[in-house]
Design a protein that fits this description.
single chain, Immunoglobulin-like, Serine Threonine Protein Phosphatase 5, Tetratricopeptide repeat, 7-stranded mixed sheet, 5-stranded mixed sheet, binds ligand BES, binds zinc ion
Amino acid sequence: MPTSAALPLPADPHSYARPTEVSVRHLMLDLSVDFRTHILSGEATWQLQDLSEAATLWLDTRDLQIDAVSVGDHKHDTSTTWELGQPDAILGQSLRIALPAGTSQVTIRYRTAPGAAALQWLTPAQTAGQQQPFLFTQSQAILARTWLPCQDSPGVRFTYEATVRVPSHLLALMSAENPQMRNALGEYHFRMTQPIPAYLMALAVGDLAFTPLSGRTGIYAEPITLPTATSEFADLDKMVAAAEELYGPYQWERYDLLVLPPSFPFGGMENPRLTFVTPTILAGDRSLTSLVAHELAHSWSGNLVTNATWNDFWLNEGFTVYFERRIMEKLYGRPYADMLQVLGHTSLLHTLAELGPASADTHLHLNLAGRDPDEGLNEIAYEKGDYLLLTLEHLVGRDELDAFIKEYFARHRFQSMDTASFLAYLRRQLLNQHSGLEEKLQLSAWVDAPGIPTVAPPVTSERFTLVEQARQDWLDGTPATLLSTKGWSSHEWVHFLQGLPDPLSSDKLAELDAAFQLTHSGNSEILAAWFPHTLAAGYHPADAALESFLTRVGRRKFLVPLYKALLAAPDGHERAQAVYTQARPNYHSVASGTLDVLLGRS
Ligand code: BES
Ligand code: ZN
């Protein structure tokens, strides 16, 4: 399959880099990890591709201490002049490095700040095993620059190799070819031979062990978590096979999962070759593994074909949600995937209601210039993006849409894509083959207007129809113990709970709790759907479980709605502040950043 020539890049409002002048090609990283001072220190050597004989290399940094910069190969280093720009709260500081004529390589000696936003340093008490400290990074969207001076724009790709030195009893892993065992020196070498953007740079260090699942898949986790994780993700290899059947070969060789401690701020992060996941999907019944299908799907949508800027985030996430549900359908059938689709739709309606009918943040194509992408990126990219593809499926049929998507990935692999180029490609390859299709699809209403275009087909789930019936029966007075909930998955429970009105009486919730042990559910999604009702009703038997959940779990998607519900409850303000004070040290900066605003701490 011929790949088309790289497209010209649109300007990225979230990067100081000027990749059209000179861009990085390959990174040689050498870092030491100091758990005592919470500092990474070492050297980053960038090999350059000089496009226009530029005199200056512009890099992104934030809170980095730059100790020295030199140019030339390692044996003949000469120092060069460099300058840090004015700090900006969101973008950090540019690092401008003078490039003498003919420079092909630049080395930066630097160290990170103890509070570097991408990094979370955990004490032993914050891990599952309780014996060893832990470090992990979260670089998306623009945090790579807090631990690596780089061209931190998703339109810039590079390969890398790295040496990482850690305390000898810990294992280091990256978004690269990874070790499967500890070594006595605590020195690890990594290679990433496929070019990736900076937001996919990742590092984790901890008391980690590995269990293979197949020749190309496996699980890393703390030893105490590993058996549970291995059984939860037993279908991993089947997922990769299903994904390949849909949209073409997996291009990254291995696919492993790393299960992080519970403070990981996201559900999952698609770091190439090594997806990072929250332990809150270890439900014991494999009910929350669609999140893994999602991160796996990013190996095509996102990691292979990458949004050119964060304004084009829907190209990453919308395709990924659609792809995720197709993988789940292949493995577990249409009724299962339909439940996921309806849950996604519910959350889309919720986000639209929250943002309002005229909000430009409900367009697929965003304008995040001047804003922190971390605050501007919401559910719209995911669910409205998916809905556009679902509508296309509805209009042209699966065979034609699948052929289009497969070809789209193949032709643009290892390249970036912006919204305008995607639309041009979509017209050329698909829409123009059918007269009137673009109008029928209401393409511009999806991309550049708020809300959901009227052409979107309804989404329904047979299994949820039964849930809705049971919910209504219970609200009408049928005792909870008489409801037919046998065989319900957590998705059915979440749908049941999300559709309950507020506030219910405390007695009514007590009845439900007695019948189904919701307060003590081991399923994080069920808990997150249950607690808002207990708070609204003032059902206090759930308080302790809620507080323990908020202190243990750092996943922002759960924390934000729960703190909002807590703040809205009677005497909730003081309770929210008290829990937050206790829990905040457990949260990663991307979670505490959002919560500080919500709780008036910033
Ligand atoms: N790439 C995202 C996580 C992300 C997005 C991090 C934007 C930083 C900025 C990841 O693929 C994701 O979408 N995770 C979701 C789970 C998914 C099943 C919707 C999450 O973490 O909740
Ligand atoms: Zn995603």
